[in-house]
Amino acid sequence: MATAVKGSIIVEGHELTVSNPEKLLWPEMGITKLVYLQRLAALAPWLIKHCQGRYLTTIRYPNGIHGKSFYQKNCPQPQPSFVRTAAQGDIQYVHLDSLPALLWLGNLACLEFHASFDRIGEPERPTEWILDLDPSREEEPRIMEAAGHVGALLSSLGIAAVPKTSGATGVQIIVPLQPDLTFDELRRLGQFVGEYLVQAHPGLFTIERLKKHRGDLIYVDYLQHYQGKTLSAPYTPRARAAASVSTPLEWEEVRRDVKPADFHLLNICDRLEATGDLIDRVAPQNLRPIVQFITR
User: Total domain count for the chain?
Assistant: First the structure.
């Protein structure tokens, strides 16, 4: 019978257990748990920034990406003293605000980090608006074309935005916001944008909620952006064969038709060291005049 292997590391004065460090989590990329934790530590400043202050849901893969998985909303137990939580309803979510907490989750094989749109203690006024472009096909060669059309439309409205790979098959368009509008107001804006895209590009976009009725069209999901819902956080790894990471892009990269799998755990930190966080380049937008115009 195999004997479980354990070790420990000291992170910011806290001792963390590392169990089964040689277990393969992403076999195709040769990424073991130990390598994952090393990469996660390097990625931490950016990933924590986009999860801090939000309710965190993780997806755990105890035996790697090809094994069974489950969503984790409540904080795993036993809970170390350095892990903080935030209550929403009857759920105690992890408040991811430190490197030790991140690596503790990594050791538990939390391979994906999904952050809430609403912030802890500030549920009504989101600090970003997100349109989720969700392909109906597992492989969608038009996803960057679709993202380009959305970017062009927003630009025509005077809205600056950042495209982001989901790390899986989709692309999200992120608009940093001044915390002024409600989720309901942003939904109305999202519906306006979605309906326009469907009219302008009927062979590419849909706002049909039921996947079985979408055919091969790309769903403009403006409904996901709402209080209590989550989305893959910027810089979260994904449980895909390529160990892809949800990555903000330059619009020029969208025009070059980059692929989500181009950005993964083994190269993302080099990119970030070179470019920084592209989301930081866009100032918080004031969308109040546009919302008032389309709803009058």
Answer: 2
